[in-house]
Amino acid sequence: MEEEFVDRILASYKGERNELVPILQEVQENLGYLPEKAMIDIARFLGVPGSHVYSVASFYAQFRTLPLGKTRVAVCRGTACHIRGAPLILHEIEDAIHLKEGETSGDLEYTLETVACIGCCALAPCIKVNMDVAGDMTPEKAKELFKGNGNSNGGNRGE
């Protein structure tokens, strides 16, 4: 299935080196991340070494080479959230779901990340779970929110 998406995407390009970033963006938009096989196919299509494609994909923060979890948890680290307890909230979530910042669970249930600002400073501190923002967060609320949601499949380092 992944290969079909990549083939369809590549068919709309000419195969020129300057198309690399737009191709990577489109592949990730469709697959959610950049699988190794897709990067190899892109390299062949553009006539560049696979290491070049990987170096571009790993250089830009917008690209992911590992899949995201089904539940994506983002803890805001903006100034308002930080001074109102975001580090403690992050620690509580890490304990509850058994992941560190930047990791995805082995069962692909959770991805835990931090963001510079969610944009809800009046509700600080905030977290975002998929598309839902939870404001006025406390370590206790975070613990309750993720109670019983820990995984035992270990984490994978994210980007």
Descriptive account of the structure:
The chain has 159 residues and is α+β, with helices and mostly antiparallel strands. The chain has 2 domains: 2-59, NADH-quinone oxidoreductase subunit E (Arc Repressor Mutant, subunit A), CATH 1.10.10; 71-149, Glutaredoxin, CATH 3.40.30.10. It is 42% helix and 15% strand. It is built from 7 helices and 6 strands. It has a 6-stranded mixed beta sheet, covered by helices on one side.
For the CA atoms, what is the radius of gyration? 18 Å
Residue runs with pLDDT of under 50 for 5 or more positions? none
Report the order of strands and helices.
HHHHEHHEEEEHE
CATH homologous superfamily title of the largest domain: Glutaredoxin
> What is the overall number of helices?
7
Q: Which percent range describes the beta-strand content?
A: 15-25%
CATH class of the largest domain: Alpha Beta
Oligomer: single chain
CATH topology of the largest domain: Glutaredoxin
Strand arrangement within the widest β-sheet reads 5-4-1-3-2-6
User: What summary fits the major beta sheet?
Assistant: 6 strands, mixed
In whole angstroms, the N-to-C terminal distance is 24 Å
Shape: elongated
> Helicity range of the residues?
40-55%
Count the domains. Answer: 2
CATH architecture descriptor of the largest domain: 3-Layer(aba) Sandwich
Mean pLDDT: 91
Which class do the helix and strand fractions yield?
Answer: alpha+beta
Strands, count: 6
